[in-house]
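Journal club side-thread
Mid-discussion, someone asked how the predicted structure for our own chain would compare to the paper's figures. Pasting it here so we can look after the session.
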Amino acid sequence: MPLKVLLLLVAVLLLLAAGYVGYTWWQAEWSALPEEIVYGNGRIEADQVDIAPKYAGRVASLLVAEGDLVDKGQVMARMDTSELDAAFDRAEAEAALSRDALHEAEALVVQRLS
């Protein structure tokens, strides 16, 4: 009987040791975060950071997902600039019309002087 008890005790100890090694390995794999990320339990107070584009418009494509780490100055979204491009083309056309009107006025002045 003592041999059976000893074998059972050894088996239980080996099972406990394997469980401890497995749990330790699982914890090490689970907490594999980048060095700049701190994790823990408790209350965290953080500053809220609002981001906004320089100009209003529609978003054409998002280049990052929520929760991604970003660097300072990194482009996070591309805006749809079709309306801005149309406004720019319209302004160029109006400028060309104004130049033409100026040339006509200058020609009229030259004509009247002669």
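Post-session note: The two ends are 134 Å apart (CA to CA).
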